[in-house]
């Protein structure tokens, strides 16, 4: 049975970049993967990543949009078929990003999924009367949403940071991000989580008499 969910995406008061992730291990942390298309990867994924699935229904897709770097005010008509389409695109993006991160081959079938999604018209942005960035009034479709995500992937995978897609350096993390920093030395999903955990670990390993190489104290 199809359920259609229409709702306005409203953003929380904070404008902090990144998604608030709540891993099963407890706690929460902000993770900015550096690109819209990689933000979709936090909602679950293929294979063993199915354990992290959160895109179960249209409301969940709207929650992701609200948390993502798409700005607020988007009116989206989502149904179960749209959610299924989002998962298909997400799985293709997972495999492509992982291949980039680990130096593997990209499956042309995954590229075809991205290209097909990108071929549809994207979300329509506009400049509001107050000068702010807005979405065109009226309900947008999931097809438009996925086109916008897929076009972001086209930009990422063909752009200057395509070789900077990486997996978090923590052995038990697995989050993927693109390093858009100028020096290009980003190693962690977030300093708040894996960065600090590994700093503590490295510090312990160096004891006694060790010295932190990165400066700063948490
Ligand atoms: Zn991490």
From TrEMBL:
Looking at the record, the residues that make up the Zinc finger CGNR domain are: 164-206
Q: In the record, which residues are listed under signal peptide?
A: none
SUPFAM superfamilies, sorted: Jann2411-like
List the InterPro entries. Answer: ABATE, ABATE_dom_sf, Znf_CGNR
Q: Mark the transmembrane ranges.
A: none
PANTHER family tied to this protein: BLL6575 PROTEIN
Q: What is this protein called?
A: CGNR zinc finger domain-containing protein
């Amino acid at each position: 049975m199809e359920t259609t969910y229409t709702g306005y995406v409203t953003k929380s008061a904070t404008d902090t970049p990144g998604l608030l992730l709540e891993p099963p291990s407890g706690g929460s942390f902000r993770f900015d993967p550096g690109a819209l298309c990689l933000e979709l990867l936090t909602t679950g994924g293929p294979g063993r990543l199915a354990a992290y699935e959160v895109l179960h229904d249209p409301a969940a897709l709207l929650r992701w949009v609200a948390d993502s770097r798409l700005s607020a005010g988007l009116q989206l008509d989502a149904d179960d078929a749209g959610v299924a389409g989002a998962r298909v695109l997400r799985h293709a993006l997972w495999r492509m990003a992982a291949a980039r991160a680990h130096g593997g081959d990209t499956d042309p079938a995954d590229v075809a999924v991205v290209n097909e999604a990108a071929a549809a018209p994207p979300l329509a942005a506009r400049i509001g009367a107050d000068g702010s960035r807005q979405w065109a009034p009226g309900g947008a479709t999931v097809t438009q949403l996925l086109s916008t995500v897929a076009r972001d992937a086209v930009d990422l995978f063909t752009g200057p940071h395509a070789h900077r897609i990486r997996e978090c350096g923590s052995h038990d993390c697995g989050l993927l991000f693109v390093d858009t920093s100028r020096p290009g030395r980003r190693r962690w999903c977030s300093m708040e989580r894996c960065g600090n955990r590994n700093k503590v670990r490295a510090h312990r390993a160096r004891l006694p008499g060790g010295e932190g190489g990165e400066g700063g104290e948490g």
